[in-house]
Amino acid sequence: MKPIVDLRKKTLPKKDLVWLANYQIHASSPWRIAIIAILVAVIVTLFLTNGSGLSVGFLIAVLIVIGLRLIANRQPLEIKVDQSSIQVGDRQIGYEEIESFWITFRADGLQELSLRQRSWYLPYLKVPIDGQDPVRLRNFLIRFLVEQPHEESVLDHLTRKLGL
């Protein structure tokens, strides 16, 4: 039986935590190609069958957004967690704007910090914690935020599978 670690007795880090989040898009996968092929087929079918300009226009816009996301060459962002806020690239989020946090650290390689924000238009922010010690990060954040499990949405799962 593994010993139970009491995280309340761990020493708390005094310095700010800083790391680079890997937001790089991975090489093309069969999933992405299949989704784009399906969307193209749906657009062509809609255009040929009923010719509804609104639905065809909407699907073309979706296809353009997905295509732009697939070919984008994004750089890793610097993440900084300090005594008053979390900074993701140029965006700074104060602890008063965050309801809770949850750190996901799974065996399949998923390592991310999930922040539930108080805003209605962007309730969750997922930040990769590549190379960061999750226990140290948790010990730092637990002083300022409530730790609460966050469910993974269908959209999160789908975008992760597609590499978006």
Describe this structure in words.
- By secondary structure, this protein is α+β, with helices and mostly antiparallel strands.
- It has a domain at 17-24 and 77-152: Pleckstrin-homology domain (PH domain)/Phosphotyrosine-binding domain (PTB) (PH-domain like, Roll), CATH 2.30.29.30.
- It has four helices and eight strands; from the N terminus they run βααββββββαβα.
- The strands form two sheets. Strands 1-2-3-4 form a four-stranded antiparallel sheet, with helices on one face. A four-stranded mixed sheet has the order 7-6-5-8, with helices on one face.
- β2 and β3 form a beta hairpin.
- α1 (30-49) packs antiparallel against α2 (53-71).
- The longest helix has 20 residues, at 30-49.
- The two termini are 40 Å apart.
- The mean pLDDT is 78.
Descriptive tags:
elongated, PH-domain like, alpha+beta, four-stranded antiparallel sheet, 8 strands, single chain, four-stranded mixed sheet
Radius of gyration, in angstroms, nearest whole number: 20 Å
How would you sum up the major sheet? 4 strands, antiparallel
CATH class of the domain at 17-24 and 77-152: Mainly Beta
Q: Helical percent range?
A: 25-40%
Main-sheet strand order equals 1-2-3-4
How many runs of DSSP E, i.e. beta strands?
Answer: 8
Give the overall shape, derived from the CA principal axes.
Answer: elongated
- Uncertain runs are none
Which H/E pattern describes the elements?
Answer: EHHEEEEEEHEH
CATH architecture identity of the domain at 17-24 and 77-152 = Roll
Portion in beta strands: 15-25%
Q: Helix segment count?
A: 4
Would you tell me the structural class of the helices and strands? alpha+beta
Looking at the structure, the CATH topology of the domain at 17-24 and 77-152 is PH-domain like
Amino- and carboxy-terminal Cα gap: 40 Å
CATH-wise, what's the superfamily of the domain at 17-24 and 77-152? Pleckstrin-homology domain (PH domain)/Phosphotyrosine-binding domain (PTB)
Mean pLDDT: 78
